[in-house]
Fold this protein.
Amino acid sequence: MNTICQKITFIFNLIILVSLPAFGISEPVELRCEMIENPVGIDVKNPGLSWKIISDKRSVYQISYHILVASSVEKLDNNIGDLWDSGDVKSDQSHLVQYNGAELKSRKDCYWKVKVITNKGESEWSETAYWSMGLLHYKDWYARWIGFDYAFPWDDDSFHSRLSARYLRKVFKADKPVKQAKVYLMGLGMYELYFNGNRIGNQVLAPAPTDYHENIKYNVFDVTSALNEGENAVGVILGNGRYHTMRQHYKPYKIKNFGFPKLLLQLEIEYADGSKQIIKTDNSWKGTANGPLITNNEYDGEEYDARKEMPGWNTVNFIDSSWIQVDYVDQPDGKYEAQMNPNMKVMETIKPVGITNLSGGKYILDMGQNMVGWLKIKVEGNAGEKVKLRFAEILNDKGGIATENLRDAMCTDIYTLKGNGIEEWAPRFVYHGFRYVEIAGFPGVPTVDNFIGEVVYDAIPQTGSFTTSNSLINKIYKNATWSIKGNYKGMPVDCPQRNERQPWLGDRSTGCYGESFVYDNSTLYAKWVDDIGYAQKSDGTIPDVAPAFWRYYSDNMTWPGTYLMVADMLYRQYGDTEPLKTHYASMKSWLDYMKDRYMTEDYILTKDSYGDWCVPPATIEEGRGKSANVKHPSKLISTAYYYYYSGLMQRFARIAGCDDDVEYYANLAEKIKAGFNQVFFREDQMGYGDNTLTDNLLALQFGLVPENKRDDVLNTIVTIIQVKNDGHLSTGLIGTQWLMRTLSENGRSDLAYRIATNKTYPGWGYMVENGATTIWELWNGNTAAANMNSYNHVMMLGDLIIWFYENLAGIKSDPEDPGFKNIIMKPELQDGLDHVNASYESPYGKIKSNWTRSKQKFTWNITVPANSGARIYVPAKSLNSIKEGKDKITENKDVKVVEFKDNRVLLEIGSGEYRFESKL
Ligand code: BGC
């Protein structure tokens, strides 16, 4: 037995030795440029380069790195870094090391690799990674904008602003062997690109939406292998997207419009003989708006008449004599920028779980999950038969779809059959938020096998996993992930179903932080910070929605302040300082704008808009039939937030090198704190303002409560939750953002846990109990009026996901050493919670925390990635009761014992895998 075990261990070690050469240090892996894998066409001149170190050893840290960047693979293979040879740089930085080589011009291809020296040995060179530069100057674009700047007779360009898709094409010659070909394009609102009949890329709903008056994202593809020697055809389909805006004629002062769909495309071919050719959009292209995609609009849906298909429209031999010459069209005002966040893709598919027959030839399909994307159908029938699909999140009493909460969004796709065998179809330029689909006009009897749900969201990696012994918490977490991903649409939107789908700022201020544990949202939110910056007016005001597709400049602290909170999240979670540095001046000008206009002499910020948006009605019955669309502006909230941002600004100022501002904000904060206490503290109730849960949470969490009153205010909070609320929350969008962490940080994780596991109203568990598969907009979503009642919103998640990871699993980035360079691991044990198993893919590698507890014993398996370290708090009744592996804990080179306090042993550990056991 023993010998077998020994043999297995020997073989295992051998495998590790073979795969981890150089004393257990592999070559650096997962090379990223601007946090993207091999990006094509970027426009950051000194991009940040990152890698990970994998090792089976403990306490591995990087001593130096050596980066080579070359203009060709051959050079790089010969270790020639003609663009940049960093030499050996003594540094432990392995994340976002700024490129510091030759100036990178437009179109440049950059091949790179890195090797590192660690305290445990030197690595080999990494595999080759890549990035290329986009078109950095306006003058690099030789192409002209083309399209049709008008509605066609069949377009319904009234209230619903539904246009047919525009199809554009061009045939060109590439009559020599091609060395490389890249296409740069902006297809607005959305495009699909083809060469010789083949679709380029698997992106959908591209490019990422922006305020096209400010900036436009271009996409770049390497299409070398898509070209033929000889004749070629390029074809593009254009949909409305956000360019030909939904409901643009409804309230033009509120809803921005940009114009009709249009295209700017440039194909740059480099031949093997060194010569070059550029194919560009100009008036030699032909187009038609009379194709099969007869209408599209994000709110209303897509209609497709397969009888009108134009087989081979995007190939050379297609006869396009019925097509018309395109026009040169107005050029959008916005600045051209490379898209640095991934496009959306069909990320998952789900099979429907049931189909029921309603009367009148209608069927209801149940996806079993409230999802965002579309339905792909498989159908066979006669030409001209129409399948009508209406999407909804819920059913009415009669078992039909309930569409009231969609407001006037028609959410309807119609497919007209061409009638020759099995036809498969899915829409291109719309998406729906739905669980149920009403199907009408389906030839024959549809079964679940005729349909598949294609789930569409930004193609970003999932970074986190989280399970516990509590099935309700697991279900809430699962619902949260569905809402989070569903509302990633190249920008974070509020909801995916009704006639809104806007990037409301307030919904994400803390949400983005929690979401970052689940998905790598670094590039998405970096883009969003830019979107917000672009939406700022010259006087400093920031809107509530950005990109400002809806013009809402209502002036308040909470929605616009998301600008700062997202930048803070990117700093804490990803160690990315660029957004806060780039936007520092604009953030400051916004704070000045608010102060100059709305701050009184005693430092009270008087202007707010929404207050604690959507607090739960006192009882579920009280909220029946009522609209939650009521604002409760609160000076307390806006003053508290001004104080909170003054704290953030001190950190930002330090990082941005604006040292004078540190003192300025520190002084201002002190004065606000004094004013706040003067005006809002009420001795008689030992609480603040209206003594709501939110009022007191903000005061305590933001550090506004004087030291000698903190216990009393905490006591007030506890009394509200335990006595008044019978163990429930009573917070809306604002208070919920701080609720769970405030309780845990003040020693009341037990209450937080109770709130998280309530099945009764109000709470996340109540949603689950009532059949939710996503997170609702309203705590009383099942009784509230339909006019503002989405079943797929993230705003009420508050800080729940952060609390799951940081406080239950114990995985937290140290704000002093951000991006998980140093990890704080402090799980909160709860009665009734026997285990938590979580992982998080950090910029340094995978962090794992897997703990189990019984009455007297705690077992904890931890992984800390190489080149990072952790401060871990092991629950234990004494220092002596802890074992690491098989042995009693002793100070050694990997583990430093710091202290024993409050029934926890604080240890500082280096990277590696550990197993701790302790007596409780
Ligand atoms: C949106 C919210 C948003 C709010 C602000 C709602 O209609 O769906 O998520 O934050 O308006 O007024």
Remarks:
- The first helix runs from residue 2 to 19.
